[in-house]
Amino acid sequence: MHRLIFIFFIHFVFGMMNAQNTNLAPSKSVTEDYFGTKIVDDFRNLENLKDPLVINWMQSQTNYSDSVLNKIPNREYYINKRTEFDQRQSFSVNKINITENGFCFYLKKRADENTAKLYYRKGFEGIEKEIFNPENYNSKSHKKYLINYIKANYDGSKVAIALTESGREISEMVIYDLKSHKILPDLVTNCWPTNGGGISWLPDNNSFIYLQFPITDPNSDLFMKNMQAVIHKVGQNPKGLNVILSKKNNPNLKINAEDYPIVKLPTYESQYLFGYIAGATNFNDTYFQPVNLINKQNQWKLLFPKEEKINGFLVKNDDVIYISEKNGINAVYSTSLKTPDFKNPNLIIPSIPNEVINGLYQTKSGFVFSSSKNGVEAKLYIYQNNKIENLMLPFPSGDITVTSQNNHSDNFWINCAGWKNDDERFRFDIITKKFIPENLVPIVEYPEFKDIIVKEITVKSHDGVDIPLSLIYKKDLPKDKNNPLLMDAYGAYGINNSPFLDMTFMLWALKGGIVAIAHVRGGAEKGESWHLGGFKDTKPNSWKDLISCAEYMIQENYTSADKIAIWGQSAGGITVGRAMTESPDLFKVAILTAGIVNSLRIEAMPNGLNSVKEFGSKNIESEFKDLYEMDAYHHIKKNIKYPATFITTGINDPRVAPWMPIKFAAKLQADNASKNPILLKVDYKGGHGGRDLLLKQKYLNLSDVFAFALWQVGHPDYQPKEK
């Protein structure tokens, strides 16, 4: 018997060396009954990533995909251009921290470096000093570490540095002390600050609060469960964790296992801590307690429940000033912190027609708030002395981020970005009411982009709703059905698909193509109502909006069906996966990078219980129907001609389980009736898309997408030569 199994295994391994169409995935189907509906899952066995057959099939698919991609001419164009752009910008800066006393901390990467280092200076004009290089961290392990988060304390004497390896995102933190100029012995493990609300330093400048993940193994059933807010005191090594908010310690708050109990101290002088029961939701139950009771259990009092639909607030004197989406009205209100009354608040900023207020930032004399129109046109206002003033931005911007300094200063900075312009930083001068450039990097010119234009339009969807559509292309490009079109869509979690200088989009336009970003429902482009328009039972609007946008581009003679490539990442996999399964003849190419494509199995993923809040639970009959409807995997049908499809996943992905894209690839290969290639590539160094990857690996992955799409839409520069 053992000999027969061994012979079968050898034949299977050798079989994997054949062409893709003879290398179908091993299949063990499972049939499940959901409220009287029987669902067959043909490739449930592929969820076991430790099965040798699954391991070998994944590797063979990756090898085959590489062999195909390597034959595409000009594949190096993308990597070469990205490298050239990097070298043109002698260095880049991000994650800027400005302390209460004006110290400036930031990450800086030179053009010839693959990772960013940590620097600081005293004020904008101060002398720059390098203080930490991740390449020197834990060098004996031979692992490649990146800094993915920094947070300085209030006086700039210490800075917490989070480090991650191989796209895992989960981090460990070290503390750099500027007085001794060295890394302290403290090592904070089991953290994920980029996904856990960051850290919050306390007024002693020697302690901070962070979200602790008890289990960090993505293969464990307890991964991303029972997280807890804890205090770390620098220089102390207690036997246990100092937990201040958790499911176990605060049973009266009814915290679920999948919830994120995040605690923040908003300012150095704040008299209160704020606790958020967060997760994959826009609105949270929010609590508060006096700072001086920080080490006492169960002192949290409810400030407001999630039903108030508050998505941002600040505390000024004794007032809570907040943005609310309650009753479908986007406006700014205030109430007393000592006697909060969210049922009868004071209206400060009424709803602004055709704009969504999306950020509040405190200053000495009042506050600043930002808004956007259709998610692509940013505006900025200042509120002082009960008056609102619209501030003239340095240039029209698709997106802005705001950073204020403290309660005793009117200083604030903005970063402006757009589809065509790179991020630029300005300081607002309260006296002149003007923005003064304060870039820590030289502004780089891209003369190649001067003839590229951006056009913002709206397209009628299947139900008559106007869908914002951003178009990027060369100004002299004729309307021609031969134009390659790359369509990007997301539409989930109430996240805005904001404009930024995406070099992949720019390079596509330089190659004579059109880029279209479809701002489909499920995102935040038009506020919470837009989110709810692509949420659970309304989720079909997300992919129907994309389909309508594609049909519009064909009707207006911008392109034709055999020239369209659609691209979805993460939750965008639902939008793109269902668009290609509902209208397979409308697209030539589908690209799914780390995509959610088997939504009926969301609860089996490590972060699945959080995702239930956005998409639904299979254990509720109505939500089971919603999940099934948005499940691209289960909508693949036999003998249907599907588009050429490129599917990727990262083996270290903590957000979307790698088996989900793998199953989708297997079923698509088995059932597809067209001759279009269906490629699966597993990144054995990567995680969720391009997060926390070394630049070389990130560019290589993007070059695969770029080359595959242009090859399949027939671009002459990317056609393999027949031997």
From TrEMBL:
Annotated ranges, domain Peptidase S9 prolyl oligopeptidase catalytic: 503-709
Q: Keyword set for this entry?
A: Hydrolase, Protease, Serine protease, Signal
| Keyword Repeat set for record | no
GO molecular function annotations of the record: oligopeptidase activity; serine-type endopeptidase activity
Q: Which residues form the Peptidase S9A N-terminal domain?
A: 28-416
Query: One Pfam match, by short name?
Result: Peptidase_S9_N
Task: From the UniProt record, give one GO term of the biological process aspect.
Answer: proteolysis
What SUPFAM superfamilies does UniProt report for this protein, alphabetically? Answer: alpha/beta-Hydrolases, Peptidase/esterase 'gauge' domain
Enzyme nomenclature, EC number = 3.4.21.26
> Does Hydrolase count among this protein's keywords?
yes
Catalyzed reaction equations: Hydrolysis of Pro-|-Xaa >> Ala-|-Xaa in oligopeptides
Q: Which InterPro entries match?
A: AB_hydrolase_fold, Pept_S9A_N, Peptidase_S9_cat, Peptidase_S9A, Prolyl_oligopep/macrocyclase
Q: Which residues form the signal peptide?
A: 1-19
Q: Which domain of life is it from?
A: Bacteria
Q: GO CC terms for this protein?
A: cytosol
List the PANTHER family: PROLYL ENDOPEPTIDASE (PTHR42881:SF2)
Q: What is this protein called?
A: prolyl oligopeptidase
